[in-house]
Sequence to fold (282 residues):
Amino acid sequence: MRIDLHTHSRASDGTQSPAEVMRAAADAGLDVVALTDHDTSQGWAEAAEAAAEVGIDLVPGIEISTVYEGRGVHLLAYLPDPADPELLTALGRVLDGRNSRVPAILQRLREAGVHLTVDDVRRVASGTPATGRPHVADALVALGVVADRAEAFERFLNPGRPGYASRHAESLIEMIPRVVAAGGVPVIAHPWGRSARRVLTESAFADLRDLGLAGIEVDHEDHDPATRSALRGIAANLGFVVTGSSDYHGTGKVDHDLGCNTTAPEELARIRELAHLARAGR
Ligand SMILES: [Zn+2]
Ligand SMILES: [Zn+2]
Fold:
């Protein structure tokens, strides 16, 4: 059984519709796939319909933008109730922050001599509720300013570059229990793939476990073999679920092909069991 627990569609910053992601997952020989768009469950219904058609199992999820000790941390929430009022309110704050970030980025780009309008960004964002830096990057590509998303981030959009603007993210410490209260299972995405490596120490993970953190994504392309083995050790010490996934974005992110990393069936079974317990405890 091949299980990939982290993918994106056009409901956030992927390049395919939710149905296309499900068909691509079936073509890639996956049996189970999670759709985990940033800060929204908007793609779930379309994905569920397509998954049923192609005979794969969909795990609905959301990758939530949070902050811990001043660093950005992505939190995967599996199987939460998407209508949970507190979760919806928190996600609404994140989406508002994402959308209001775009004008701030465009202002800074203008000051750097690059003229891009909100409409240029909207044109490449095709109806997502969460416009953000990847869409600004796509607009820069569409206008021929840069060759691809990677160049857009390196030259303009990463921290320290002329088009960077920070934005609102929810507190990780508050979001973990909120996901559990919504019947979901919280797992930290690529914990040592980004800037948060220094703050997400083993003792920090232990504190987060006490708040309800259930697992960590160990097998991710941002982690080299040494990083994976260190994280696997921490997961074993703390009793965490261990996941692996592609973080697929269609053509929006290279070297993240569907199924390039996978999750063991017994780990998925633990996630389902924890979701069952979280729902029962509501
Ligand atoms: Zn992420
Ligand atoms: Zn992701």
In short: The pocket of zinc ion (ligand 2) is lined by residues 6, 8, 63, 189, 247 (CB under 6 Å).
